[in-house]
Design brief:
Shape: globular
Number of helices: 8
Number of domains: 1
Length: about 230
């Protein structure tokens, strides 16, 4: 199906607006969060972690949630994600980090942007409503974002803890209900894999939840209907 001129204009406008929002969250709100956390006695490391989760929730998560209502096709979301991943990676290479959220010890924000873009792009060719990609992206953005905030408040450092996992499970199940019982299963598996420290959860969470949904949609479509909202 060919996209019309008006749809191109619409998607271009939406991409500009949402990219400005992402920049605002990253450059202003995340930095504001970082400075506030420092003033409240959190360490530099913990303050960075809060800032990263603000970006997770308000940039990656909110934009993902809006995709089904704002875009006709997935090219612009992919371009936006690639631009962000290239920018954040280049800052690591140059050493000129955005100190309020970038950690010189890891490049997890690069993985986040790449996985977000890839998941959204490839799933559109299966489900043109965007939701098949949006749900895994939200489990990564909102689910993992909530668990990070809970654990940071509880332990004041980056550490795995069941309190955060419970928070992630609740949020992910709520998001996963879009695909019924299959979404709940995806939420449980995503929560479990998030606790695994060997691989960045910005890779494992969307990958595991997406594979679970794909298997369900293709081989067990009845699972996507049970409890579906």
């Amino acid at each position: 199906m060919l996209i019309t001129y008006m749809e191109i204009v619409h998607d271009t406008l939406m991409a500009i607006i949402l990219l400005i929002w992402v920049i605002f969250v990253t450059v202003y709100l995340a930095k504001l969060t970082y400075n506030f956390a420092l003033k409240k006695g959190w360490s530099d490391h913990s303050a960075k972690y809060f800032a990263r989760k603000v970006i997770h929730i308000l940039a990656g998560g909110l934009v993902a949630f809006l995709l089904p209502f704002t875009f006709e096709e997935p090219l612009y979301p992919l371009i936006m994600a690639l631009l962000i991943s290239i920018l954040t990676y280049s800052l690591h290479r140059s050493g000129k980090l955005m100190y309020w959220f970038q950690d010189p010890e890891n490049e997890y924000e690069v993985h986040f942007a790449l996985m977000w873009g890839i998941v959204i792009f490839i799933t559109w060719f299966i489900d043109r409503s965007f939701w098949l990609g949006v749900v895994p992206a939200l489990m990564m953005s909102w689910g993992d974002g909530i668990t990070g905030i809970i654990r940071n408040i509880r332990y004041k450092k980056r550490v795995k803890g069941w309190e955060g996992s419970v928070g992630m499970l609740i949020v992910s199940v709520a998001v996963g209900l879009k695909f019924g019982l299959a979404g709940i299963i995806a939420a449980v598996l995503a929560t479990l894999v998030e606790r695994w420290n060997k691989v960045d959860d910005n890779i494992t969470v969307p990958l595991v939840s997406l594979v679970t949904l794909l298997v369900s949609v293709i081989f067990f479509p009845q699972l996507t209907k049970i409890l579906m909202i």
